[in-house]
Amino acid sequence: MGSFLIGTGVTLVTFYIALIYGSIAIGLIGFAELVLMLLACLYLLIYCRHITADIRIPLTVAEKGKKVTVQLTVDQTMLFPAAKVRYRVRCRNTFAGYARNFWWNGAGLMRGMQCMEKRVVLSHVGSYEYELVKVRIYDLTGLFYVHKKIKRFADIQVLPELDAVAVQVSERVRRYFGEAESYDDFQPGTDVSQIFDVREYRPGDRLQRIHWKLSAKSDGLLVREDSQPLACAVVFLLDMLPQMAGKGRHMRRSREAYAETFLTIAADLVYSMMDAGCPHYVAWQEETEIKRLRVEDEESVYLFLMQFMECQKETAGSLRQRYEQQYRCEHPVHRLELTPELFLVLDGQTLADFGGDNWRQKLEETVWWPMWMGVLMRKSEDILLDVF
Predict the structure, then answer these.
(1) Checking phi first, is residue 154 left (phi over 0); if not, alpha (psi -120 to 50) or beta?
(2) Which residues are bridge partners to 198 per DSSP?
């Protein structure tokens, strides 16, 4: 309604000048301005009741640095057109914790459905939420406008490029059997506390596995199969800094760089462990809860990325203590942790510092991990360092 305030001021000034100089002509001009403004206001208020808008993104996942199409659609049912329309859009990266607002210019509106496509480049990884906040509709003169709130959303996720680092799994980790809260749904195991299935007796089955109570109720012998716990020898804790406070371009760029560094390191390590055949838990803190996901195949890697990029962090630095308290019955072989300061810590020992600008080079030069080999080897030195 800012244009109508300006128009009201101009009209009052015109009447004031006409009154001072006693000019009828100037007074008629002021009267014409008033009538034009009232007609434009009435026209636009009616127009707002016959218009709907939406925002869409055809893709749900995109690559970093690639162009993405954002579609803005407007449907109006009035016979008369509007001079033009502008779209107020908010782009929010929920993972990095920042938002930007901008206006996109559209063409004049005719009756029916119209679609405008905008090509944008998403230069940082994260979970993006595009919100169509409101539309600004101009009258036929293009001088006056009104706003209509829309509040429509479209989401897209930009994933980091996964680069595998060398991982070799030892027999200690590969043959690890421990307690777990979840069990395999597809194959039996050795946990006698949980029944996987009950089947008919087959020659060669041990007598200790016969379920005597159920066998007594049936015509033949029934054998119980134990469950296989989905225990993991390695737990990877991601203790990321909460969303930074403050405004400004420098703060936004700092947050973008930190979030992208943290996510890229975590994604490369998670993917590399999975690729080496090492199932593991990945845990992080979201608001007041600890979220944990078992990663054992490529699908679970991308599921982890989707969930982690949508997390809302409020605190940092207490993940390890809270995790040990919540899962105190579990005893993994190793705990790997990526700290808020971008230190990689294994069982209390710092393996690498990714806090500098050369973090990617450090990640590529190190062959991981002592948790599987019992040694740490660096390519640049070509030596073995015993860490146990």
Answers:
(1) beta
(2) 224
Give the integer Cα–Cα distance in Å for 372 and 351.
14
Rg (CA), the chain: 32
CA pair distance 160, 358, nearest whole angstrom: 17
How many whole angstroms separate alpha carbon 95 and alpha carbon 139? 40
**Residue 92 exposure: Cα atoms within 13 Å on the Cβ side:** 13
Structure confidence by residue, pLDDT tens digits, 79-108 = 777 778 889 999 998 888 778 898 999 887
* CB neighbour class for 220 (10 Å; exposed up to 12, middle 13-18, buried from 19): exposed
- The token pair that represents 213 in the structure block: 């109570």
Q: Which residues pair with 353 in a beta bridge?
A: 343
Residues 6+ apart with CB under 8 A from 141: 36, 40, 83
The structure tokens listed for 236 are: 């990877």
Q: Look at the alpha carbons of 73, 79, 47, 30 in this order and tell me if their dihedral is positive or negative.
A: positive
Tell me how far the alpha carbon of residue 373 is from its chain's centroid: 34
Taking alpha carbons only, the member of 102, 80, 82 closest to residue 90 is 102
The tokens 């055949």 sit on which residue?
277
Q: What are phi and psi of 129, to 5 degrees?
A: -125, 115
User: Contact, 342 vs 353, CB < 8 A?
Assistant: yes
pLDDT per residue over 280-330, tens digit each? 889 988 877 888 888 888 888 999 998 888 876 655 557 888 888 888 877
Structure tokens at 201: 């007796």
pTM of full prediction above 0.85: no
Tell me how far apart the alpha carbons of residues 201 and 224 are, in angstroms, rounded to a whole number: 9
Give the C-alpha separation, 216 to 210, whole Å.
Answer: 11
